[in-house]
Amino acid sequence: MISFENEIFIITGGHSGIGSAISKCIVNHGAKVIILGRSREKFERFAGENSNFIFYQCDLNDIDSLPSIVDTIANAHGKITGFIHSAGISKTINFEASKNNFLEIFNINLFSAVKIIQQLIKKKCFTHTNPSITFISSIASIRGFPGAVAYASSKGAINSLVKSLAVELASRRIRVNAILPGYVETEMLNELRSLYGQDYIDGINKRYPLGIGKPEDIANLVSFVISPLAKWMTGSCIVIDGGGSL
Is position 173 within any domain? Predict the structure, then answer.
């Protein structure tokens, strides 16, 4: 049985999409979850009166502001068990898009997490009991999709980062892994539905042997990966997509 009693996790984007499912799942297993996000109003709608959810407002695109936020969290809450980078941005842009288009996606999907992790390590924020870092990547990093050059590149960079970071942090016993979801019923899928229509979504569903997934499918896997049950797992990039990448 998984238990995170008396443990604290930091999650970017933990009040929407896949991140919200992860937050709920971890809290249901006894943890406190510190959510980093832009909208306090959105967080309050998500968390309600549950005091196990804690919010810190931040803009992941403002990389230079992140160390001070980490310092504030460390001073207020002490040691954490894990950091989960679930926040992400996806824009349908082609290869000829501007550098700024690419940079915004890389800032949120990759560079912000790197800056946060650097500060967590510098402040010695991780506990000595099963500490972990987990990224939400995407099967877009291992398959080709039109209009996904910047997004897929940022997620591919995450996969590579995981491999080397796992080796660098092994001496500290900090495990580093990535989860690569396929299409899941989230706001991002709803945007595709609005853009291309329901027939497009139905086509995706038919190409997935087990159909399009639910956020809870990803949350359950993350809960396992960050738990002591996976204490010998590091440097792994785990595909969970209902067979969509087969």
Answer: yes
CATH number for the domain harbouring residue 109? 3.40.50.720
Q: Is the CB of residue 85 less than 8 Å from the CB of residue 136?
A: yes
Name the residue range of residue 34's domain: 8-186+215-240
Report if pTM > 0.90: yes
Cβ atoms 201, 192 nearer than 8 A: yes
Q: What is the pLDDT along the chain (246 residues), one digit of tens a residue?
A: 899 999 999 999 999 999 999 999 999 999 999 999 999 999 999 999 999 999 999 999 999 999 999 999 999 999 999 999 999 987 766 666 566 788 899 999 999 999 999 999 999 999 999 999 999 999 999 987 776 788 999 999 999 999 999 999 999 999 999 999 999 988 777 777 777 788 878 888 889 999 999 999 999 999 999 999 999 999 999 999 999 988
Contact 217, 184 (CB under 8 A): yes
Asked, for residue 206, whether it belongs to a domain, the answer is no
Counted domains in the chain: 1
